[in-house]
Write a structure and sequence with these properties.
533 residues, alpha/beta, nine-stranded mixed sheet, eight-stranded mixed sheet, 24% strand
């Protein structure tokens, strides 16, 4: 017997063009977990978490993300390879087809919201084809109180139909999958892909337009936590750099792991109500907070299980991008509500596979703006098809795929806020030391944690610094609980000439990437780049 036969609330979806009487509204995670298994869409692991497979797509598809080009967006969006225009009439026709596809199906609907600071709250209604997609929405968005549901009115609608396949020749898409934002109608239309990150990042992309354009608030692709004395720290970084891992600190309260706003009142607030962490090579020893969050209510994506339901976190048979989604309250040490005061420290995280960048360096305001606009990390073999050697990867503002405006708009806002707050900005290399990928070793997590801890505690304020010969970065010569020789990357290489050559190669990659921003950057920002090449 269906566990929610007697308790399910339902609502009509006819005003959205969806004609079905089988609408499950606001189901609990337990009910959605049960439905996923009952429908053959998931498996329960030995920890009680739900394991699902997202199908053909195990990550986002950036080339299939579109924004409707109309009077609202035409002159504001930075159009190009990242923000691809979509015709308004074609959107309407495609929406009608998706609504028709969802009609007469069993549908899962949820009311939720984004933004933990009340003044910036964005109400969201999600309509999902699959129960586990709706469970993901429960985990990742903020959860209204029961009393708030009676008069709930959405600001945005998310229509999510993984099983619907578009016809590119007719529908105007690139292929059968799509994620389209319509800022006039306030709809995120997602189809042809089961990857749940498209739901999360769809709303993030919407907020990255709404907040700076209408609310004078900087949206950030970052994690954040707060110490006992109320000092907020922010961690920017692309996927795989340690943004989630390093913000989950037992000595600090987690504000959030991925998406935040910095308001004109100088508050930092979480957009979300949960975490979405990578689990490749996850161990309880290295990441106890994330490991402990994998319990009933969590969703594991694209992992491999044995016959007893044990997860092999080292198995990448399906994808390198194995993930877990869980509500933030699965972490013991959290900030409630998810809001903090002005940050004292900002960390830019880069997984430098070339072993060039220092493990920690302090940035000037010009360097901070330059590295923020650059958004550097590196891709290594296995992360994407065709990658056999490390490649430099640049994503403006550490989140270009989600930024509808020109990157310099966000950089200007961040630069102004950093100066106003008097914040310390640090560049952290969580990548390789002692050589490039394949020769050197990944920086030990315990050393990275020690360096960040020293910066947060002010222990680097009174040590000497030396200047990196190519990038001009200020590197501390001593840090508690870290061997001195680790702090200067060149010192960790046996072949110093090879290091110099690799450092100049990386510097040239930075400069080549930055050419497209030069006309928008002032002298201070330009001086923040590599000093020699």
């Amino acid at each position: 017997m269906d566990v929610h036969t007697q308790t399910t609330k339902t609502i009509s979806l006819e005003k959205y063009g969806i004609k079905t009487t089988r609408v499950h509204y606001q189901l609990s995670p337990e009910e959605l977990h049960y439905d996923s298994i009952e429908h053959g869409l998931g498996t329960e692991t030995n920890s009680g978490a739900l394991a699902i497979n997202t199908g053909k797509f195990t990550g986002r598809s950036p080339k299939d993300r579109f924004i409707v080009k109309d009077e609202v967006t035409r002159d504001k969006v930075w159009w190009g390879d990242i923000n691809i225009p979509f015709d308004a009439d074609k959107f309407d026709k495609l929406y009608t087809k998706v609504a028709s596809y969802l009609s007469d199906k069993e549908i899962y609907t949820r009311d939720a919201y984004a933004c933990a600071e009340d003044e910036y709250r964005l109400n969201i209604r999600l309509i999902n084809e699959y129960p586990w997609s709706n469970m993901f929405a429960y985990n990742m968005f903020l959860r209204p109180k029961e009393s708030e549901l009676n008069n709930f009115k959405e600001d945005w609608l998310v229509l999510n139909a993984p099983g619907f396949k578009a016809n590119p020749e007719v529908d105007g898409t690139r292929q059968e999958n799509f994620a389209i934002l319509n800022f006039s109608k306030k709809i995120a239309l997602i189809g042809g892909t089961g990857y749940t990150g498209e739901i999360k990042k769809g709303i993030f992309s919407a907020l990255n337009f709404i907040l700076p354009v209408y609310k004078d608030t900087l949206p950030m692709h970052c994690s954040a936590n707060v110490g006992e004395d109320g000092d907020t720290a922010i961690f920017f970084g692309l996927s795989g750099t340690g943004k989630t891992t390093l913000s989950a600190d037992p000595d600090r309260r987690l504000i959030g792991d991925d998406e935040h706003g910095w308001t004109k009142e100088n508050k930092i607030f979480n957009f979300e109500g949960g975490c979405y962490a990578k689990v490749i090579n996850l161990t309880e020893e290295n990441e106890p907070e994330i490991y402990g969050a994998i319990k009933p209510g969590a969703i594991l994506e694209n992992v491999m299980l044995d016959d007893e339901g044990n997860v092999d976190f080292t198995d990448t048979s399906i994808t390198q991008n194995t993930r877990v989604s869980y509500p933030i309250y699965h972490i013991d040490n959290i900030q409630v509500p998810s809001v903090g005061d002005n940050p004292r420290n900002i960390f830019f995280l880069a997984a430098d596979a070339f072993g060039v960048l220092p493990p920690i360096s302090k940035l000037t305001p010009g360097q901070a703006a330059y590295h923020f606009i650059s958004g550097y990390t590196a891709k290594v073999a296995g992360t994407e098809a065709g990658i056999e050697e490390p490649l430099p990867s640049f994503s403006a503002c550490f989140g270009a795929p989600f930024m509808p405006l020109h990157p310099t708009k966000y950089a200007e806002m961040l630069s102004a806020k950093m100066k106003e707050a008097g914040v310390n900005v640090w560049l952290i290399n969580t990548g390789w030391t002692g050589g490039s990928y394949g020769t050197g070793n990944r920086m030990k997590l315990k050393y990275t944690r020690a360096m960040i801890s020293a910066a947060l505690k002010g222990e680097l304020a009174h040590v000497d610094f030396t200047t990196h010969q190519v990038f001009g970065l200020q590197m501390p010569v001593h840090c508690p609980n870290v061997p001195d020789e680790v702090l200067n990357p060149k010192a960790t290489w046996e072949d110093k000439a090879a290091y110099d050559k690799k450092a100049l190669e990386l510097a040239n990659s930075f400069k080549t990437n930055f050419k497209k921003f030069e006309e928008y950057a002032n002298d201070e920002i330009m001086a923040g780049g590599p000093t020699s090449s």
